[in-house]
Amino acid sequence: MRLDSKQIAFKNIQNKSVRSALLIILTAILTLVLFLSSFLILSLRNGMSSLANRMGADIIVVPEGYDSKIRGAILRGEPNTFFLDKSVVEKIRTIDGVEIASPQLFIATLSAGCCSFPIQVIGFDSDTDFVVKPWLETQAKLPLGKGEILVGNNIVGDMHKHVKFFNQEFIIRGRLAKTGMGFDNTVFVNFDEARRLAKEYEKILKLEDKDHENMISCVMIKLKKSVDPVEIQNKIRSEFKGEGVYPLLSQSMMNEVSTSTQDMIKYVYILIALVWLLVFLVLTLVYSITIKERKREFATLRILGASKKHLRNIILWEIFTINLAGSACGSALGLVISILFGTWFSLSFKMPFLAPKVLTLAIIFIAVFAIGTVMGPLSSLSAIKKMNEEELGLLLRQND
Q: Distance between CA atoms of 255 and 75, rounded to whole angstroms?
């Protein structure tokens, strides 16, 4: 029976199973790193795009010294509690250039026996809100009633199911779409419920009782078209001078995050380049050594009548098959990790992180699989060329 190049290549892989397995693992590691790196880059970029497109507020007014807290709550969902007097809202609405001023109340649940999990609770005014409602993935009847909540995309719980914090049960009435921001780990309630939870918060921590009816945490401000945010920021500073009020520009927050994101992406690109360069060099070295060690085997095939083209095809089929298997394993593992641990990545990076959609993940899978598959044959070309320049049959006779 006459064996063609492909069949001989498969037989060689089976006979050298340990060597083949090591090369498959090496290729799998390469494609895994490339897949996850591509996933991280796209997720960070999507997060920044999401933040820029649907941030909503042009200016956020918070108590002085709490600008870092609002950044943590909005960008990463870090639970925080802070208070501001409600009279601030009405004063801001009188400032020329302000289109909408919507108050919010931030309360952090506690990692105590009364709570299912520590999360950020935000009370919002559905009549004036322009920040939360655009993210609603499922239709919900607004305003929310007593004991009703909207939940971020990462919050565990199905529609119309109950969750518990501050010793009280709430029913889920709506869910937000994936934002890539802190909203994914946030629960939203109406203002009456938020103030009731604020009382429970103070009661549990034995804090001084406040005037809850006049209590908010921040004011989300949307400006009229063509109005300069910096000008309004200065007006707010002047209006509330000495009152402990701080106007934060959303753009400055986005610029800060954008810089951090670009730095992170730059490092990921460098990592990809280094890994690919290293693996390409390693594969080139491995295949060069392997082909050199197998000269006697190839010389025997030449004496038996195999042409140089036939030998080249055998080697390329071997390498192609090995890289095909390694790329499939690495790409599949990368896909599984990105799906199962996407939320963990989002929490770990502490910056806007929005995973690509299924179609994009499929495109990444195909691209990484294809690149990983052709990398092996490309890295072996120099060794094959060198082998073809030698007359292996003559070399074998001389050695004998």
A: 13
